[in-house]
Amino acid sequence: MDMTKSPDKAEFDRAVQADTGTLAIEARDLVKRFDGTVAVDGVDISVPAGTIYGILGPNGAGKTTTLRMLLGIIDPDSGTRKVLGSENPHAIAHRIGYLPEERGLYPSMKAVDAIAFVGSLRGLPRAEGRERGRKLMEDYGFGHIADRQIRQMSKGQAQTVQLLSTLVHKPDLVVLDEPFSGLDAISQGRLEKLIRGLATEGTTVIFSTHVLAHAERLCERIAIIAGGKVPFEGLVSTARDRLPPQVHLETRNLDGPWRSALPTGAEPQVKSSGGALFDFSLTGEVEPLLAALIEGGAGIEALSIERAGLHDAFVAIAGEAAARALEEGTAEGDVK
Ligand SMILES: Nc1ncnc2c1ncn2[C@@H]1O[C@H](COP(=O)(O)OP(=O)(O)OP(=O)(O)O)[C@@H](O)[C@H]1O
């Protein structure tokens, strides 16, 4: 599906620009081939400034390649990208923090020195980097290991230090490639909090993930990517609204005039107590349904109406195979 021409996306972009005048990232129709094989095939991305954005897809979908094109590490074969208002990502590198998929800091460096070193690559004087690095470590609850060498740290601790190093020069945009991979449940929760805090302070965050729950909890907008294509780009709520809400209804009575208010095909499961259970998709408004149930004497015992979750929306948008690949790519220990 060509989302560039999708009315809801075009409308949202216009609304975003009218509201804030700012998209931190605007990429259109990015294409990248490796040895003749298309890795990324027409990706569109619109990230409003100060928001959290997720690129969601299974292994090999094209997430890293997309992020690298946005950063200017590789150039697209075609398409356009504008990052923090610039069409040349290198010109604004000092305003970006990047956690690459490949992890690694110098093992012999102390944490504060490693953070200062990464900051210096983005133009921050080392002494200031060390000072800020210590503060970042303390704020994160890592003050007690600020002077420990990277080699003496656990994998998760070292990864967190690397993440903090991407923030030391106070970037306007933070790009995180699979930041949750390899972290235990508690560290993942703390990272979610850190990301939320960044956005609250006005920093734009874009991250890739193959775990739906992180995207669902954190993001305002997402791109769903599968096989290099983006079948959905937009608000998480818009993705969820692709599917009708699900109604679960329990009634004391089995029959009555109220039954005509239920969609055709909503077959009851008869309860031994005489009532019935119904599960069906809400096709119209809630109020008329509720009125018909009450006035028609259904005897409501329980009623819940649930919006579709991102998982079901993902299946509807990207298909069963992509959803299975997403789940299979979820490494053991990943927290959902
Ligand atoms: N430098 C490269 N040379 C050749 N093929 C590449 C290169 N980089 C990526 N690819 C291929 O492009 C496709 C997309 O890879 P990419 O790393 O962007 O996916 P991803 O969604 O980030 O997956 P993962 O989570 O596994 O890293 C894959 O088929 C991959 O094998």
UniProtKB/TrEMBL annotation:
It comes from the Bacteria. Keywords: ATP-binding, Nodulation, Nucleotide-binding, Transport. Residues 25-252 form the ABC transporter domain. Pfam families: ABC_tran. InterPro entries: AAA+_ATPase, ABC_transporter-like_ATP-bd, ABC_transporter_ATP-binding, P-loop_NTPase. SUPFAM superfamilies: P-loop containing nucleoside triphosphate hydrolases. Transmembrane segments: none annotated. GO terms for molecular function: ATP binding; ATP hydrolysis activity. Belongs to the ABC transporter superfamily. This is ABC transporter domain-containing protein. It comes from Croceicoccus pelagius.
